[in-house]
Amino acid sequence: MDEMTLVDWSRLQFALTAGYHWIFVPLTLGLSVIMATMETLYVIKKDEFWKQTAKFWMKLFGINFAVGIATGIILEFEFGTNWSNYSWFVGDIFGAPLAIEGIFAFFMEATFFAIMYFGWNKVSKKTHLLATWLTGIGAAISAVWILVANSWMQHPVGMEFNPDTVRHEMVDFWALVLNPVAISKFFHSVFSGWMTGAVFAIGISCWYLLKKRETRFALSSIRVSAIVGVIGTFAVMFSGDMSGIHVAQYQPMKLAAAEGLENGGERAPFSIVPGVEVPGMLSILATHDINGYVPGINNLLEGYTDSEGIEHLSAEEKMERGKVAIESFKQYRSLKEENPLAAQEARARLEENVEYFGYGYIDSPQELIPNVPLVYWSFRAMVGLGSFLLLLMIATFWFEYRGKLQDMRWLQWVALLSIPLVYIAGQAGWIVAEVGRQPWVIEGLLPVKAAVSSVSVSAVQTTFWLFVVIFTLFLVAEIRIMINAIKQGPKINNNN
């Protein structure tokens, strides 16, 4: 089997691991806010009902939290096993935020999780409440560093290539942390977790209404969760707008793929579905200017001049400069001992072209085009489902507030059956983010085929199917444990 087969299997395995891990992360982020809000109401109102309500959602949070940790640990190991060339090339940069996440955020979560879960009646109410909030904050901080690392792969900043060590080395830590892509991605991911937690809690609460059980608990949970979810969804929309501008600036091919835009220009249209377009809307979304220039796939391959008169190289020109960078690097390495002057000339050529280093590994311009149908439809699934779920949360809140939800069984069923949809929307978002930047593992610097480890295809295939079995067992176990906990219900006396 050829190298691409190894790359494909390695990508598939990483996608599997990341996809399973993201099933658990957003629910952790969302339920942490919901249960902390409920415990806050308990401390303020001194009503035992809110304590038991918070403890119920805390139980589901704990189940999900434990399984999420297991999948996350495996994910980080894959950088060394399947992507060793990547880890060597940029480990000095990529490893820093992951180390901070492991040392700081993980231990913060674990410490306060223990107080939160086992500290009832052992610490004061306010101390316990603080531990609950800090557990959620710890989860968000953990997400910060993971997303900083991921965002650097989307828009690499704050580093220099050292030809002596053959590594990219960090020169500006704060550029890494304050990367605009990281900021928008953090808010987009965390608030999508609020949305996930809210849809999950509303759906489960509607199950109790359908069963005519724990009515007060269900209606109160729906009100709190819907407020959290609606706030989170509007924040997702705002951060999504920020993210769209960053994608247009730093990853125009991803934007073109997400829109199926072959030929761009000024007043670029937004495609709702094939054949249905809104004129000028893509330019507004991508540049906040209806006359803004948005390049299409062909423009990016052939080269173009944008509305500000800036000329952008064609794919062929970038590939040629990339090959010059690689050849200059090889010359520098071979000449630096025997001919320092010639080596310095080679290094100067390398520095002139190092921006296009990764393009030297590309064999054809067509490699630079991601899977357009997958990215295009994933984007529409994310936006379409997100819009539907926002309306659902508004509707459940409104009818609960008006005292009518209890009698609307059709809406209860819709809410319950919509739980999988929020997960599909989340996975679709990550497909857009990750598949949309192919063939790059680091945008413009390192393609996936140059980042993969030198391992056998059979080894990757074996571990892939092993992970399929293990992760599926994890998921089935979590669902079964959660279903049992839900059937038992909250321990609230005198339910209506």
Please provide a written account of the structure:
The chain has 496 residues and is mainly α. Helix content is 73%, strand content 6%. It has 17 helices and 10 strands. The strands form 5 sheets. A two-stranded antiparallel sheet has the order 1-2. A hairpin with a 2-residue loop joins strand 4 (270-273) and strand 5 (276-278). The longest helix is centred in the first third of the chain and has 43 residues, at 3-45.
Structure described in brief:
By secondary structure, this protein is mainly α. It is built from 17 helices and ten strands.
Layout of helices and strands, plus pairs?
Blueprint: H1 3-45, H2 48-81, H3 84-118, H4 125-154, E1 159-162, E2 167-170, H5 173-177, H6 180-210, H7 215-250, H8 252-259, E3 265-266, E4 270-273, E5 276-278, H9 281-287, E6 293-294, H10 297-302, E7 304-305, E8 311-312, H11 315-335, H12 340-353, H13 372-401, H14 409-417, H15 419-435, E9 440-442, E10 446-447, H16 448-451, H17 457-488
Antiparallel strand pairs: 1-2, 3-6, 4-5, 7-8, 9-10
Helix pairs in contact: 1-2, 1-4, 1-6, 1-7, 1-15, 1-17, 2-3, 2-17, 3-4, 4-6, 6-7, 6-13, 6-14, 6-15, 7-8, 7-13, 8-13, 11-12, 13-15
